[in-house]
Amino acid sequence: MHSATSLVPIDPALLALIHGSFGGDGALMPFAKEIMLIECQIAGTSYRDLEAVEPTLLPGHLLVLKREPQNPHDPLAIMIFDQAGHHLGYLPRAKNEAPARLMDAGKLLFGRLESKEKHGTWLKAEMRVFMRDI
Questions:
Q1: 6-24 pLDDT, tens per residue?
Q2: Residue 86 in contact with residue 126, Cβ under 8 Å?
Q3: Does domain 33-133 sit in CATH 3.30.70.2330?
Q4: Separation CA 95–CA 72 (nearest Å)
Q5: Which residues fall within 8 angstroms of residue 123, CB to CB, at 6 or more apart?
Q6: Phi/psi-derived region of residue 51, left when phi > 0, alpha when psi is between -120 and 50, beta in every other case
Q7: Which of 2, 78, 102, 129 places its Cα 20 to 30 Å from the Cα of 96?
Q8: Helix, strand or coil, per DSSP, at residue 15
């Protein structure tokens, strides 16, 4: 656990994810910090076909968050993808307003898988959402 004043090393996997998924040059400013915003379950996993994907999901893996403002059920929807681009589900509606507003303002948010448990056809996946800030 890092203290509020300690520097957080830049994770090379995060750097590659930023570069590959967001089309940027991957350049991060010095002294960048990861700020943990929320902990939640990935919503909607029972509606996704994750049988082949589930074995590849490991705690600590980075998750890509993508806004879906045209979602007919929730204009603040945020989709969750693994690093290979598989759609895993959504941030829960009860917790997506602040992250959606931050993403709409241009902030870089990403997730990290904390744990997973298979319950029949349902995948219970816990994650944390982080914001990269300078």
A1: 555 666 776 666 665 544 4
A2: no
A3: yes
A4: 18
A5: 42, 45, 46, 50, 54, 116, 117
A6: alpha
A7: 2
A8: helix
